[in-house]
Amino acid sequence: MRLLLLAPPGAGKGTQGDRLAARFGVEHIAAGDILRDQARADTPAGREIAAYQQRGDLVPDQIVLEVMMPRVEKAVEHGGYILDGFPRTLSQATAAAEIARQRGLTLDHVVYLHAPDEVLTRRMLHRAEQDGRGDDTAEVIAYRLRVFDQATRPLIDYYRGRGILVEVEADQTPDAVTGDILAAVSDV
Ligand code: ADP
Q1: 147: CA distance to ligand 1 center in Å?
Q2: CA within 20 to 30 Å of 104's CA: 1, 4, 14, 110, which one?
């Protein structure tokens, strides 16, 4: 199984990614978590990534591709992956697709999880009370939703055009969302 979760911040990519990875016995590769790990390193590259994340800006494509592609290729050797948060720009998508195509390992499904901005904002503010992520402030949340609209939303049409996009309502219980995803990606 090679599946991408494409979703605005707060839609539940992390939760669903964990569940789907367990269900399909593949790795859950979460771009935001991996970049947050890198950002903890006290190096120029780490500090640069941390600064982008704090502001809610996307980390530059070149850095993201270098960090993410080796992980994706490794996961493929172990049966596939649930990708969460990568690719997130058209240029990441085309670069990743080209590498995947050369190896005959293109995506099976792209799941677009959607919910109204008010719902997403409420969830992230709630999450902020629990795990205190530095980018879960009201101001940065609003900015991240705009970044999604500008940089990531075009991927919906890109994957729809490739015939692999399914859409799932994210404003439901986690179990209901998982059920809808499984129904949408089952080939029978
Ligand atoms: P969310 O989607 O809820 O904002 P993530 O953990 O997926 O949370 O991402 C947090 C931050 O990590 C983003 O705001 C961005 O700075 C960075 N990031 C994650 N994935 C990417 C990516 N594919 N390209 C560039 N930046 C990314």
Answers
A1: 10
A2: 14
Q: What is the 3-state secondary structure (H, E, C) of 7-63?
A: CCCCCCHHHHHHHHHHHHCCEEEEHHHHHHHHHCCCCHHHHHHHHHHHHCCCCCHHH
For 96, the token pair is: 């990743």
Of the candidates 143, 134, 131, which has an alpha carbon nearest to the alpha carbon of residue 9?
A: 143
Residue range of the domain that includes 55 = 2-187
How many domains is the chain partitioned into structurally?
A: 1
36 CA from centroid of ligand 1 (Å): 9
Residue 20 burial by Cβ neighbours in a 10 Å radius (0-12, 13-18, 19+): buried
CA of 188 to the centre of ligand 1 (A): 33
The CATH number of the domain holding residue 22 is 3.40.50.300
Nearest CA to ligand 1 atom 15: 58
Among 37, 53, 113, 127, name the best residue to mutate to test ligand 1's pocket (greatest count of ligand atoms within 8 A of Cβ).
53
- Ligand 1 atom closest to the Cα of residue 53 is 16
